[in-house]
Design brief:
elongated; about 200 residues
Length: about 200
């Protein structure tokens, strides 16, 4: 008498497991677009773009001013200039070195601001069918830029509970990680963890 009861229990367990599996597959392949992540910081990136542009203009103007040859003071014609050639060489080296340093600082500030804005994610949208994902970044001045990639070309390098601030997302064929700020909104955490938030060996 115990055998039929055990058989029924096994059949019930198999049926429940199949139902759970079908539901998981259905959740991972939504019939419509699903928003998985959103973080609006347009004002911050607009200010960041203006700051980086201002820094670029400032350091570029310093580099141009350093390259400009200073006007020589008026002296009497019979005045001698000891070691004039050596002084000219030192002055030129100083001016060129200062110009290169200013240009390098301006380039670094502009490059860092541009890269950060292009890799900071504003929203993540799982397209209908669950095969495509659209990433929208803030872009310079918060203007926004988006692109769509296959889901199997995304890999989340850490779980949401393992990182304190930024969640790194790897996109195949693109350099540097895309960053998801954990202070943003995750409307569907389970679907995010099973799709975009999953680790894949790319």
């Amino acid at each position: 008498m115990a055998a039929p009861g055990r058989r029924c229990a096994v059949q019930l367990l198999v049926a429940l497991r199949g139902l759970f599996t079908r539901r998981t597959l259905h959740d991972a392949t939504p019939p419509r677009d699903v928003l998985l992540f959103e973080h609006e910081r347009g004002r911050f990136f607009a200010v960041l773009g203006l700051f980086c542009a201002g820094q670029g203009v400032f350091w570029a103007s310093l580099a141009v001013a350093a390259l400009a040859r200073p006007s020589a003071p008026a002296r009497p014609p019979d005045t001698e200039f000891p070691d004039r050639g050596r002084l000219d060489v030192r002055s030129a080296l100083w001016r060129y070195g200062l110009a290169v340093g200013c240009g390098a600082i301006g380039t670094l500030v502009l490059g860092a601001g541009l890269l950060f804005s292009l890799r900071s994610v504003r929203s993540v949208m799982l397209r209908a069918g669950g095969k495509q994902v659209t990433l929208t970044t803030h872009a310079p001045f918060g203007l926004g830029a988006h692109f769509t990639v296959p889901l199997n070309q995304l890999s989340c390098m850490a779980h949401r509970g393992e990182v304190p601030a930024m969640l790194p997302l790897k996109v195949k064929g693109r350099r540097f990680y895309f960053l998801l700020d954990k202070s943003g909104h995750f409307p569907n955490t389970k679907l995010f963890d099973s799709t975009v938030g999953a680790y894949r060996n790319l």
